[in-house]
TrEMBL record:
PANTHER family named in the record: FIDO DOMAIN-CONTAINING PROTEIN (PTHR13504:SF38), FIDO DOMAIN-CONTAINING PROTEIN DDB_G0283145 (PTHR13504)
Stored PROSITE patterns: FIDO, HTH_CROC1
Record's keyword annotation contains Methyltransferase: no
Residues annotated as the enzyme's active site: H272
Positions of ATP binding: D276, G277, N278, G279, R280, T281, S282, R283, Y310, Y311
Annotated site residue numbers, Important for autoinhibition of adenylyltransferase activity: E145
Species of provenance: Flavobacterium urumqiense
Residues in HTH cro/C1-type domain copies: 5-59
Keyword Cell wall biogenesis/degradation in record: no
Gene3D superfamilies xrefs: Fido-like domain (1.10.3290.10), lambda repressor-like DNA-binding domains (1.10.260.40)
Keywords: ATP-binding, Nucleotide-binding
Entry protein name: Fic family protein
GO molecular function: ATP binding; DNA binding
Domain Fido: from-to ranges: 195-332
Length: 347
């Protein structure tokens, strides 16, 4: 595994110091991992795989092999123990896994049918259409959070550089920042296969730039209360975000992309990592995953009825540990977004 880590780091042109800074790990540890004098934890392996773009299965097999050899070494019963363990692992792997509902599967099948149709229309993609839909996404996402600009005013701010009388500086910045964040996730879609902590913090930094500069791109350091209930204490945020990325790395290749995107959104909202901008960041991250898999932006509407359905589905996922409604809500939103897009480019 040490050779795997060193080669991947050198291929990306990173120094051990830079890897250490990006992962929040001591530089001496990175050097020890590469020399074989120290074994990384499972969490560290997953973070290294994400940062260095190493296939997770490849590095996890190498890590587990070394872990097994370290534990059993040359013990005379090692091979027999491994055979028994193999049988047990095979048995456990056959245990039934949690399945998605018939209703959700039906919508996912409809989404994939629409996506196949969309793939056949890719040559008709239009920059002006994409620009208009992204403008709508900025308008709706900000409207969910209380921004009072109309779609027309949002257009004037973004495309004409105008200042709208009666609207606050914050509302103007929310519009500009969100549009720049869309451009950023589209760039990530082109050049990055997987998400990592650095990218999430960069998205958040864009969202809060000029609004809360001291908090932009940083995890919160204070306790927050929403509707009378407290979120995670700040000292647990970094740990929960570590678990968040571990969950993503473990599930990114096994879940349907729409389910993965919805889960990422819901999990990030639950952690409430930031003092502000959690909703916008979560929706952008969700849509980054959708774009990476060839889908289109799922544009959640900001009108009162849609907003309430969205919040209620999120609340049930968080308080009753029932994600079905939220998964259905996101899937239905993606389906409607695909249908609308196809109707426009098919004219």
């Amino acid at each position: 595994m040490k050779t795997l880590l060193k080669n991947a780091r050198e291929q990306k042109g990173l120094k051990t110091r830079e890897v250490a800074q990006l992962l929040g790990i001591d530089q001496a540890l990175i050097s020890k991992f590469e020399s074989g004098n120290r074994k990384p934890t499972r969490e560290q392996v997953i973070k290294l795989a994400s940062l260095l773009e190493i296939d997770l299965e490849t590095i996890m097999v190498a890590w587990l092999k070394e872990k097994i050899l370290y534990e059993i070494g040359q013990d005379e019963f090692a091979l027999k123990a491994l055979l028994v363990a193999e049988e047990e692992i095979r048995y456990q792997s056959k245990s039934p896994k949690k399945k998605i509902s018939t209703t959700l599967q039906k919508i996912l099948d409809e989404i994939d049918t629409l996506k196949r149709k969309l793939d056949g229309f890719r040559q008709f993609d239009s920059y002006s259409i994409s620009q208009a839909l992204e403008l709508e996404y900025t308008f709706e996402s900000n409207r969910i959070e209380g921004n009072t600009m109309t779609l027309r005013e949002t257009d004037l701010v973004i495309n004409e550089g105008l200042t709208i009388s009666g609207k606050s500086m914050r509302e103007h910045l929310e519009v500009i920042n969100h549009q720049e964040a869309i451009a950023y996730i589209k760039d990530l879609m082109q050049r990055s296969k997987f998400i990592n902590e650095s990218e999430v913090l960069s998205i958040h930094n864009l969202i809060l730039r000029g609004i809360h500069p001291e908090d932009a791109g940083r995890y919160r350091k204070v306790q927050v209360m929403i509707q009378g209930s407290s979120h995670l204490p700040p000292f647990l945020v970094a740990k929960e975000m570590g678990d968040f990325f571990i969950w993503y790395e473990t599930n990114k290749n096994s879940l349907h992309p729409v389910v993965l995107a919805a889960e990422i959104h819901e999990r990030l909202v639950i952690i409430h990592s930031f003092i502000d901008g959690n909703g916008r960041t979560s929706r952008l991250l969700m849509n980054l995953i959708l774009l990476q898999h060839g889908y289109i932006i799922a544009n959640i509407k900001g009108d009162y009825e849609s907003r309430m359905l969205y919040y209620q589905a999120l609340e049930r996922a968080q308080t009753k540990n029932n994600k079905e409604d939220f998964l259905l809500f996101i899937a239905q939103t993606e389906k409607e977004s695909l249908e609308r897009y196809l109707s426009i480019i098919g004219r």
